[in-house]
What we know:
Blueprint: H1 5-22, H2 27-30, H3 32-68
Helix pairs in contact: 1-3
Keywords: Membrane, Transmembrane, Transmembrane helix
Organism: Ralstonia solanacearum
Transmembrane segments: 39-63
Amino acid sequence: MNFPWLRVLFLVGWLASAGRRSAYHLWPHVGLEVVNALVVIAKVVEHAALLLAVMVMLARLVLRFRRRS
């Protein structure tokens, strides 16, 4: 049984997206600079997870077509 990399990557991206959307609720407690840093970090993690998920899907597709030929 293979490790479900796609599910993990989508879960990480979803959690980063949720964190980015709800980071502004922390503004009164930690300040605007920290909230902006959290938003930027979450956006980078979200995009990296999505990019890695697409790369894993493409790699699996290429391997499947190579095995058939």
